[in-house]
What does this fold into?
Amino acid sequence: MCKVLLFGGTEEGREIAELLAAKGVPSLVCVATEYGAAALPKGVKILQKRLESAEMAELMKGAELCVDATHPYADRASENISAACGETGTRYVRVIRESLGYEGCESFENAENAAEYLKNTEGNVFITTGVKELEKFIPIGTERVFARVLPSVESVEKCENLGITGRHLICMQGPFSEELNRAMMRAVDAAFLVTKESGANGGFKEKLAAAESLGVKTLVITRPRAENGFTLERVLEMIEEII
It folds into this structure.
């Protein structure tokens, strides 16, 4: 039985897991990927699996608190976690990232719309939205696509299956400084940057600044929904109160 059930895979999830481990709180950290599991500290119990709502509800039995620290764009996961908490009566806490705002960018509701816009343009496209959305950009031509993804076997395989290989594939873990973003965009001769509004922890501000300094046009895929929740700092305080 766990006292705190944590859904992570983000920087916020890692910080919460570190607190749980340091305090010896009986907990279970759920992540979807091997990469997410590798980033977690020693001393916490980890479940690496993509879960549906019913499986989540089963894990919640006996837990005092469920913390949703999944990515701001993982809307389906958050919906399932919230639904499971409602079913089991478990206290649900969502960790939210502050939206930094942006000006001078083109914004789109999803990757499909951003890709449609790019069909009528010319120039290389530096894509930092993650491997899941890459397929949507293949119609603009793989010769234009330069993707930055996490350095995992799963990511590389997906990119190779889409025809994104060689110098068109950059595998690195972020967040990245403005200087490094600028160097990468310059190296691929980018005319466009495609990014999500991932907040401070996602290095969003640094990407925007690098693109602006080079005259690279930025396309932002907006967050899927407005969220209610608490900052990371407040969630850490809540866990301390439970302890």
User: Anything to note?
Assistant: Residues 75-88 form the longest helix (14 residues).
